[in-house]
Fold:
Amino acid sequence: MSVIGVVSMKGGVGKTSLTANIAAALASTLGPARVSVVDLDPQNALHLHFGVDDTHISGVCRQSLEGESWRNIALPSAHDVLCVPYGMASESERKEFEALLQSRPEWIGQQISAAGLEKDAVVLIDTPPGPSVYLKQVFACADMVLIVLLADAGSYSTIPAMESWLREIASIYPGVPNFYVLNQVDKSEMLNRDVVDILTSKLGNKVAPVSIHADESVREALAFQQPVLAYAPHGQASHDIARLADWLIDGLNR
Structure:
């Protein structure tokens, strides 16, 4: 089993959409029952990209607090991706769950292992933006971490903080490969092109070799609760995401 964490230092970079769309692209190549997504973001939005209704089922927050297996909350989708939602939770439940994660640093990895997934499965974990107890849990179990950036000044300004945090976490969990993924790139804008060049120069081989172009179909796909590869399979974003998924498969030796 391979685990990919998807993280960001700031919100609004398309992290959750990218998590869902990469999962769908991986599933289209690897086949049914091979790809799952786990939502560790209290916003509980990841399942919406797959048209999955989680209103009648507990999520990872309540399920963990009740000591129950995540296997019972894995929801199938029409896109060959199993969805494990964060679930609806009160503020007190969220705080209690985060206290649990703080006290048991490898809890998420243990729950994923206990969920009964196939040995050749790939699990993507979506996290809330910024350093958090969720992020530490991801680094404790991940085989690879993707850091989502926009090609703008706001994302560029977060890199020093992210690099500092990565150095700190590497002292606890060394050897976890991490790569920056540039999302929503619009090379028709000069500033966008300049920032891409600066980021690529600054980060070097830590930038994933595939960037995701800005494509309105990604937002439209979410409105229809579909991955973009299902909604607009021939669009630029779909092409980029499929290439990124192929690169991930090679990196994970799947």
Observations:
- Strands lie at 2-7, 35-39, 81-84, 122-126, 144-150, 178-183.
- Residues 153-170 form the longest helix (18 residues).
- The longest strand covers residues 144-150.
